[in-house]
From TrEMBL:
It comes from the Bacteria. Its cofactor is Zn(2+). Belongs to the zinc-containing alcohol dehydrogenase family. This is alcohol dehydrogenase. Keywords: Metal-binding, Oxidoreductase, Zinc. It is an enzyme of class 1 (oxidoreductase). One of its GO terms (molecular function) is alcohol dehydrogenase (NAD+) activity.
Length: 347
């Protein structure tokens, strides 16, 4: 099969080629519960750039060369002997983690923390290819309204945004405020989820005018340019007290300190983006009673819920398609901020 393969790390993200497009062996059924998926779309994520940078070297055990791509959807191509209820040709979306279902975390539905899990595209070969090996437990059948290439990025970008927005929505009441920092590939989904699940006033902060306009179309009530006056404007909108919930889809640079400052006393700062550091005196935590909550992808059940919202037209994913052979161009466009929404590779 054809695949775009990572052969070496590039810590500075320099040059114009990160992966090599060429022939690699087809994945094979290795376990009775395995499923081979013919890829219809593979999302291009900022995490992929972090993988290229080598940021994940100390977090996962993976040897180069390998195939990135952890946001995948397509059609079933082959099934193991123990697979039931699914057949060749079924359109499916892949939960990003491949788990056994037997450990305690699995039984509690806490897929992200399962023992011995496999994460295609992170610690195993992923979907920047024509075919992907996963298992039945990770697959969700798609309704006829949703095409694989249109929903592939929901499996990480959408699911992560959904998980954070769902957590926030459970504590947001009408008349309260939610701030979303970053209206890009994740943020524009998070805005729609907040609008679908709660009645809070949604304030969106981003440095790009195009992203702010996208946020407006997604249901944002207030738009704030991410400049030196951003904190002041958010405080003006929130009666000088800050928001009950701040969801930070950037997680680096000044976004962290500003996000915490935008969080009201006894409010919650949800960090989704990463790459920076959270530094806060313990006395400030005590006197403000703010909560800081991390968010890692989402559960299988939450992906089912997100697909239900997509099926009903309550969330829409802005995508830009690239041919698989043009994976380097997609990565470069993402790196240089030329993509509105999400990039998707289509074999």
């Amino acid at each position: 099969m054809k695949a775009a393969v990572l052969h070496q790390y590039n810590e500075s993200l320099s040059g114009d080629s990160f992966v090599r497009y060429g022939d690699v062996p087809d994945p094979k059924i290795e376990s009775p519960t395995d499923v081979i998926v013919r890829i219809g779309g593979a999302g291009v994520c900022r995490t992929d750039l972090h993988v290229v940078e080598g940021l994940w070297r100390g977090k996962v055990d993976v040897e180069l060369p390998y195939i990135m791509g952890h946001e995948n959807a397509g059609w079933i191509e082959a099934v193991g002997s123990a697979v039931s209820g699914m057949k060749v040709g079924d359109p499916v979306i892949c939960h990003p983690l491949v788990t056994s279902g037997h450990c305690l975390a699995c039984r509690r539905g806490d897929d992200m923390h399962a023992d011995g899990s496999r994460f295609p595209g992170i610690n195993a070969d992923g979907g920047y290819a024509e075919y992907l090996r996963t298992n039945q437990r990770s697959l969700i059948k798609l309704p006829s309204t949703l095409a694989p290439k249109d929903v592939a990025p929901y499996t990480d970008a959408g699911l992560t945004a959904y998980r954070a927005a769902k957590k926030a929505s459970r504590h947001l009441l009408p008349g309260e405020y939610a701030v979303v920092i970053g209206a890009g590939g994740l943020g524009h989904i998070g805005i729609q989820v907040l609008a679908a699940l709660c009645a809070a006033e949604i304030i969106v902060v981003d440095r790009a005018d195009a992203a702010l306009q996208l946020a407006k179309s997604c249901g944002a009530h207030h738009l704030v340019k991410a400049d030196e006056q951003a904190l002041e404007r958010v405080l003006e909108l929130t009666e000088g007290k800050g928001a009950q919930a701040v969801i930070d889809f950037v997680g680096e640079g000044e976004a962290i300190s500003r996000g915490l400052a935008m969080t009201r006393n006894a409010g919650t700062y949800y960090v989704v983006g990463y790459g920076g550091r959270i530094e806060l005196p313990s006395i400030d935590m005590i006197t403000s009673e703010k909560s800081i909550v991390g968010n890692l992808v989402g559960t299988y059940a939450e992906l089912v819920e997100l697909m239900a919202l997509a099926d009903r037209g309550r969330v829409h994913l802005a995508t830009r398609e690239y041919a698989l052979k043009d994976a380097n161009q997609a990565l470069l466009d993402l790196h240089h901020g030329r993509i509105q929404g999400r990039a998707v590779l289509v074999p």
